[in-house]
Amino acid sequence: MWLADLGEDERSRLDRVMDGYRMGITPYYLNLIRTFDSSDPIFAQIIPSKAEASLSPDELEDPIGDDNPDLNTHPVRVITHRYPDRVLFYPTPMCAVYCRYCFRKRMVGQAAYAPNPTEIAEGMAYITAHPEIREVIFTGGDPLMLPDDRLIKIMREAATIKHIRFLRIHSRLPVVNPFRLTDRLADKLASLGKSVRIVTHFNHAVEVTETAIQWINRLLEHKISVLNQSVLLNGVNADPKLLETLLLKLAEHGIQPYYLHHPDKVKGTGHFRITIARGREIYRELIQRLPGYAVPRYVLDIPGGYGKIPVDNDHVIPVAAGKYRLISPVGIEREYAD
Ligand code: SF4
Predict the structure, then answer these.
(1) Domain of 168: which CATH number?
(2) Ligand 1 pocket, 102 CB below 6 A?
(3) Does residue 331 have a cis bond before it (omega within 30 degrees)?
(4) Is the CB of 94 under 6 A from ligand 1?
């Protein structure tokens, strides 16, 4: 019905959006939509909007600088090495859904970004040669899109590297297709013999269904920790009450709130962004309303890949209305405007 309501102009803007970026949704997640328009938090996250065709000059293809050549943090194709003790490892660019605000919009869903066995081997060789790396974070795309055997083979290779103590998977599958969390998968993850955690991505309480909880419990029963990162999104969850409901529900079911991300300046996502001042107001309310264990860290990735920083006065210094100086963990300064 929402498509039928669009005029010619709006349809052509939507076509342009669809030319540049994938759409995908699982039947399970589609069923969580209650109202087929952008007032619905699931619809807003997943259904393309003509607002994505409105670009602003400071928006970036790669806002968190995974590929920034100046930073020298991308030693081989499957790895970003930004912090000394951990690496990001990209085993697949595929996702089960394509979130409209995704910070890796430039590459998700594109087979050209899928690594071949030689590239996977180069990644493992890099990790082996760097004993300061303690943790491998499998991200993507969504690593749980790989079949169990393929995923576990890659993870086992990492697990056998002596200095690797922690393995992590970043995945939205527990939210958009919780049936992926089978006992077989949980067994195999537990058998890796390292500390394994899954960081998932619930943004709104309606996503925390009984079904999702039931399948996530399989991980918890296998002593696999489950954490959550949310993105603060205008029109989805940028409201203290909504976030309070979400975070309490997560904490109640053993899912540790980990990060609340200020939205990245990704191309075509201005309609999702809020100002830093509003983000801070929301966060202050959360601190007052929730126990510490239910409050995630409110963070911002400095555009360009200069690191993740807490959105507080030590790192985000207001210099004028809507303008800030951002200071990276190693003291690099960048200007930022809402
Ligand atoms: S699941 Fe994650 S990587 Fe995939 S589109 Fe959504 S935010 Fe991006």
Answers:
(1) 3.20.20.70
(2) yes
(3) no
(4) no
Q: How far is 132 from 161, CA to CA, in rounded Å?
A: 12
pLDDT in tens, 261-290: 999 999 999 999 999 999 999 999 999 999
Closest atom, ligand 1, to C-alpha of 96: 1
Atom of ligand 1 nearest to the CA of 95: 4
pLDDT at 1 over 50: no
Question: Can 102 be counted among the known catalytic residues?
Answer: yes
Overall number of domains in the chain: 1
238 within domain boundaries? yes
pLDDT, position 311: 93
Task: Establish whether 301 is a catalytic residue.
Answer: yes
State the pLDDT confidence band at 313, using cuts at 50, 70 and 90.
Answer: confident
CA distance 218 to 223: 9
Joined tokens for residue 195: 């500390």
Is it the case that residue 330 has pLDDT exceeding 50?
Answer: yes
Of the candidates 13, 86, 105, 267, the residue annotated as catalytic is: 86
Q: Whole-model pTM above 0.85?
A: yes
The reply to whether 132 falls in a domain is: yes
Nearest to 93 by CA among 151, 162, 145: 145
State the amino acid at position 22 in one-letter form: R
Residue whose token pair is 């107001």: 281
Q: Is 95 in the pocket of ligand 1 (CB under 6 A)?
A: yes
Residue 214 lies in a domain: yes
Let me know if 104 is a catalytic residue: yes
**Residue 192 covered by a domain:** yes
Pocket test of ligand 1: the residue of 64, 94, 95 to mutate, having most ligand atoms within 8 Å of its CB, is 95
In this prediction, residue 15 has a pLDDT band, given cuts at 50, 70 and 90, of confident
Q: Backbone dihedral region of 99: left (phi > 0), alpha (psi from -120 to 50 degrees) or beta?
A: beta
Cβ partners under 8 Å of residue 235, min gap 6: 38, 39, 41, 44, 271, 272
Domain with 53, as residue range(s), is 8-337
Q: Are 258 and 227 in contact (CB under 8 A)?
A: yes
Minimum CA distance residue for ligand 1 atom 3: 141
The phi, psi pair for 247, rounded to 5°, reads -70, -40
